[in-house]
């Protein structure tokens, strides 16, 4: 027995020595090591539960499917995320010293008592505002380990995007792509540009669609007199209730680069007042550059001979010529001239989460509505999102999904709802939800967490915390996963209201999540 005790003491002494050495290491090097080690242990959890059933995944998409997509559509969404760091040799190292233990199921999860003790002092930080609700769960078992007001439905801000992503992945699956098409209206001798609801179409992709369309028109000897543009996929108001705002474009199924009028691809930016009309005018110019003069541009609906599946899924339709714009009968009113398909849904969900992209979020909420036979407006989207989330057996009491982005203060979810949803994404039989984990920003490195976790109070979470952020005036939230000191993967959600200083509130939330990374909390 004494030998056993001495052995444990030796191990404990060694662990303390490693930790002292760790904290003495310069911060930049420590953050590099944390990113590698943290990504590795989280990856092990995802891999163990997913590979056996779905094959290897890369950024939320099966590698085999991604390779197929790259071969077929070189500009279809690969490399869609960017953490903004220059390629100057500062990328995380490919290996790391054994600072952190390996992730495994043999270590015990933290206890509720231990977590309460660990959080006690941090929860007294006045920067958190009037009220903080939180929940911590075990990703392996799905059990909620600790909660403080965890079941209370509160304004979640952008963390509701996790729910939006879960709903659309459940409804359509990770491989679905959103089409933007051109079809021929034989009766009125015009090309109709049909918006499918993809806000991520780039200038280059739009130009490729114009090339395919012009080639198809010339092949058939068709000479259009006009270009129509069809935005009938969406219903209801084309403005979010917050009104004109640089954080979101008008809600339309046809736009280029989310209606941005500058060269940005993420974050707040000035937006076109009518992205659909602007996109149509731009497309007419692209056709003109390719020898097709459409004379005028008008709002229109695609001809009756053209039908889109009501559930929003891709189908082989008569006259469909695919990406090359070929095939079809010249006399058929619904002949497809060309089509661009978005990145896979898995990639769109990841991009939405890492950059907190409001335009993608609202588009995915409407894709969920279309997939379930509902109108693509705020009301239809809320009903559809709720119907899909109910399938996941989540605590839905008090929830409200007034929008898909979290910009609305009418949204309501609980911290326990978010931790359980993240745990569902790690379950072996829910591989379709895996992008909810792989799309979470990494603390201190990319996305909306790229500029955080650099202070003495929070740096222990750098590379180990992966979480979706949320910010409205007076509301700050953080929900994601973290690897604790014993190598256990935990899910967590923190929501605070009434904070007067948003930056200070964010730092306080980061400190709470970082505390999870630094303790076993028995």
UniProtKB/TrEMBL annotation:
User: In this record, what's one Pfam family?
Assistant: Peptidase_S13
Q: Which InterPro entries match?
A: Beta-lactam/transpept-like, Peptidase_S13
**Record field: transmembrane:** none
Any single GO molecular-function term of the entry would be: serine-type D-Ala-D-Ala carboxypeptidase activity
Comp. bias intervals (Basic and acidic residues)? 63-90
Q: Which gene encodes it?
A: dacB
Q: What is its EC number?
A: 3.4.16.4
Q: Where is the composition biased (Gly residues)?
A: 319-328
Question: How is this protein named in the record?
Answer: D-alanyl-D-alanine carboxypeptidase/D-alanyl-D-alanine-endopeptidase
List this protein's GO terms for biological process: peptidoglycan metabolic process; proteolysis
- Give the record's family classification: Belongs to the peptidase S13 family.
**Gene3D superfamilies referenced in this protein's UniProt entry, alphabetically:** DD-peptidase/beta-lactamase superfamily
Q: Where is this region: Disordered?
A: 55-117, 256-276, 302-338
| Keywords (A to Z) from UniProt | Carboxypeptidase, Hydrolase, Protease
Q: What class of enzyme is it?
A: hydrolase
């Amino acid at each position: 027995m004494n030998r056993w005790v001495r052995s444990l003491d030796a191990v404990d002494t060694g662990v303390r020595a490693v930790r002292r050495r760790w904290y003495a290491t310069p911060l930049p090097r420590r953050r590099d090591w944390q990113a590698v080690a943290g990504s590795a242990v989280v990856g092990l959890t995802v891999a163990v539960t997913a590979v056996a059933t779905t094959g290897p995944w890369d950024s939320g998409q099966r590698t085999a499917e991604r390779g197929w997509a790259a071969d077929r559509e070189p500009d279809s969404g690969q490399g869609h995320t960017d953490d903004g760091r220059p390629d100057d040799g500062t990328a995380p190292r490919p290996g790391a010293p054994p600072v952190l233990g390996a992730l495994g199921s043999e270590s015990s999860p933290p206890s509720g008592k231990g977590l309460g003790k660990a959080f006690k002092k941090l929860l007294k930080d006045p920067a958190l505002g009037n009220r903080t609700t939180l929940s911590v769960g075990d990703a392996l078992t799905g059990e909620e380990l600790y909660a403080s007001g965890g079941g209370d439905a509160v304004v979640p801000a952008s963390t509701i995007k996790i729910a939006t992503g879960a709903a659309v992945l459940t409804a359509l699956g990770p491989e679905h792509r959103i089409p933007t098409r051109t079809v021929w209206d034989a009766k009125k001798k015009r090309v109709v540009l049909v918006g499918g609801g993809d806000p991520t179409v780039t200038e280059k992709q739009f130009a490729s669609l114009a090339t395919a369309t012009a080639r198809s028109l010339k092949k058939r000897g068709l000479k259009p007199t006009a270009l129509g543009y069809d935005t009938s996929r969406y219903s209801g108001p084309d403005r979010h209730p917050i009104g004109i705002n640089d954080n979101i474009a008008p809600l339309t199924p046809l736009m280029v680069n989310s209606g941005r009028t500058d060269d940005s691809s993420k974050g707040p930016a000035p937006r076109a007042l009518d992205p659909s009309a602007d996109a149509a005018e731009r497309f007419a110019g692209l056709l003109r550059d390719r020898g097709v003069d459409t004379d005028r541009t008008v709002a229109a609906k695609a001809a009756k001979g053209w039908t889109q599946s009501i559930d929003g899924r891709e189908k082989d339709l008569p006259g469909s010529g695919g990406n090359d714009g070929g095939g079809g009968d010249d006399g058929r009113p619904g002949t497809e001239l060309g089509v661009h398909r978005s990145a896979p849904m898995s990639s769109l969900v990841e991009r939405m989460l890492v950059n907190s992209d409001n335009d993608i979020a609202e588009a995915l909420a409407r894709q969920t509505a279309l997939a379930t036979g509902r109108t693509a407006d705020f009301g239809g989207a809320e009903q559809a999102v709720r119907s899909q989330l109910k399938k996941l057996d989540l605590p839905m009491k008090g929830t409200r999904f007034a929008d898909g982005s979290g910009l609305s203060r009418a949204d309501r979810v609980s911290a326990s709802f978010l931790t359980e949803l993240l745990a569902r994404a790690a379950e072996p039989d829910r591989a379709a939800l895996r992008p909810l984990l792989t799309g979470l920003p990494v603390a201190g490195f990319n996305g909306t967490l790229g500029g955080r976790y650099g202070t003495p109070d929070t740096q222990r979470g750098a590379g180990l915390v992966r979480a979706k952020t949320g910010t409205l005036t007076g509301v700050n939230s953080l929900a994601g996963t973290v690897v604790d000191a014993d190598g256990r993967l935990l899910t967590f959600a923190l929501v605070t209201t009434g904070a007067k200083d948003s930056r200070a509130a964010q730092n306080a939330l980061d400190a709470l999540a970082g505390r999870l990374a630094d303790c076993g909390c028995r």
